[in-house]
Amino acid sequence: MVCGEPKDEGITIVTEFICTSCESEMVHTSAEDERYPFFVKQLKQLWVRFHI
């Protein structure tokens, strides 16, 4: 869902897979980091898909 690369290890949230490396990067990214808005956008898409 985040990097788009096929990987085996990670977590599934609702129906979307987040690999371990992306999960770790998201968890350790501060709100001031330039990547933060991207992660928020990706997670927002998950929320929107789940609530439609």
Secondary structure: elements and pairs:
Layout: E1 10-13, E2 16-19, H1 20-27, H2 36-50
Antiparallel strand pairs: 1-2
Short description:
The protein is α+β, with helices and mostly antiparallel strands.
Could you walk me through the main structural features you see in this protein, from its secondary elements to its overall organization?
The protein is α+β, with helices and mostly antiparallel strands and 52 residues long. 44% of the residues lie in helices and 15% in strands. It is built from two helices and two strands; from the N terminus they run ββαα. It has helices at residues 20-27, 36-50; strands at residues 10-13, 16-19. It has a two-stranded antiparallel sheet with strand order 1-2. Strand 1 (10-13) and strand 2 (16-19) form a beta hairpin. The model has no long low-confidence stretch (mean pLDDT 90).
The stretches of 5 or more residues where confidence is low (pLDDT under 50) are none
Q: Order of helices and strands, N to C?
A: EEHH
Residue share in β-strands: 15-25%
Biggest sheet strand order reads 1-2
Q: Which short descriptors sum up this protein?
A:
52 residues, 44% helix
